[in-house]
Amino acid sequence: MTQENLKILGLDVSKSSVCACLLTSKPIQPRQFYYECPFYRFSASIEGIKALLELKPDIAVMEPTGVNYAKLWATHLARAGVEVRFVGHKELKNYRAHHLALPDKDDDADALALACYYFDYFDQLQRFIQIRQPIITHIRELVLRLAHLNRVQNPIVNRLRQDLTWQFPEVAFVESKRAKNSGQVPLLWGWLAGERSSNRYDNLYAKSVGLGLTDSVRHHAQRLCSIEREEFAIETELHELLSDSRFEVYRQVFQKFGFGSRLQAILLSQIYPLENYLDAEGLPEVQIRKGRRSGKPTKRHLSLRRFQKALGCAPTEQSSGDSHRKKVVGGSDLCRKALWQWVFTRIEVRRSRPKNEIALQLGAYLDAEKAAGKPVALVRSRVAAKAVRLLFRELVTAISG
Question: Residue 66: pLDDT band by 50, 70, 90 thresholds?
Answer without folding.
Answer: low
